[in-house]
Amino acid sequence: MCKESENEWFRGWFNSPYYHILYKHRDDAEAANFLDALIGELALPRGAAILDLACGKGRHAIYLHHKGFNVTGLDLSEESIKQAMESANEGLIFHTADMRTFSLNEKFDAVFNLFTSFGYFDQKSENVQVIQRIHAHLNDYGIFVMDYFNPATVCCFKHSGDLHIDGIQFHITKKIENDHIIKTIEISDQGQQKQFIERVQLFSLDEMINMLESNGFKVLHTKGNYFMDDFMEKTSDRMIIIAQKS
Ligand SMILES: C[S@@+](CC[C@H](N)C(=O)[O-])C[C@H]1O[C@@H](n2cnc3c(N)ncnc32)[C@H](O)[C@@H]1O
């Protein structure tokens, strides 16, 4: 049995094919619908420079480029970036780097961190490091969009279950411990057993706003789903924060 280390669990899990199989419903169509609504809300000019931080295989970055933006995608997963690079083009580039330490020779009009690509680290200082890196890579008055889960509703999701996808069996259990949601994913694939962990911090809206506002951002809007409806603490699926470098 191959068991991922719980520390820095995100290195192995997101780089494995199993992550992409389990989350295959989080697809290009979902990304396009969300981005159409988000772009409408932000009114960014055509040609604006956008950083998709933790871009995965680039489903958002590729669509943003298609909509006329200059896009850079960055992710820690070499496998995901390898795949994203197949779509690289003038105005669409990708880098493998760590969001805690990245340093690019460019500033952006907007940085997007989408589909819960934060809250993975053990130390509060590592979260702050990420926010500071984002701040340093934004132009004056640049926009930061954080798309996170709503802690109030993520806790209500089904706690365990079995899924069969592409001939692979996933047995999933979830628990809440020390302000983290911990998902254990046991996989059975052609007689081979593997186990991965997802461990993501629960942040209330106030905690998120506080982290941003103490690191040089002003929060402009909070949205609650991919249609850009306003955030409702008790019922919204997502917690989407639109902030501006101040
Ligand atoms: C939930 S996935 C979302 C990917 C992409 N935003 C999407 O919506 O398809 C989280 C992403 O964060 C990336 N990631 C995790 N830790 C990272 C780090 N320290 N630096 C950069 N990327 C990281 C993972 O490799 C993974 O692609």
Quick description:
This protein has 246 residues and is α/β, with parallel strands linked by helices.
Please describe what this structure looks like.
The chain is built from 8 helices and 12 strands. α3 (28-42) packs across α4. The chain has a domain at 23-150 and 203-245: 3-Layer(aba) Sandwich (Rossmann fold). With 246 residues, it is an alpha/beta fold. The protein is globular and about 50 Å long. It has helices at residues 9-13, 17-22, 28-42, 59-66, 78-84, 124-136, 151-154, 205-213; strands at residues 2-3, 49-53, 70-75, 92-96, 108-113, 138-149, 160-165, 168-177, 180-189, 192-201, 217-223, 238-245. It is 27% helix and 35% strand. S-adenosylmethionine is lined by residues 10, 14, 26, 54-56, 59, 75-77, 80, 98-100, 114-117, 120.
Any key phrases for this structure?
246 residues, alpha/beta, Rossmann fold, 7-stranded mixed β-sheet, 12 strands, 35% strand, binds S-adenosylmethionine
How is the topology of this model organized?
Elements: E1 2-3, H1 9-13, H2 17-22, H3 28-42, E2 49-53, H4 59-66, E3 70-75, H5 78-84, E4 92-96, E5 108-113, H6 124-136, E6 138-149, H7 151-154, E7 160-165, E8 168-177, E9 180-189, E10 192-201, H8 205-213, E11 217-223, E12 238-245
The protein binds S-adenosylmethionine.
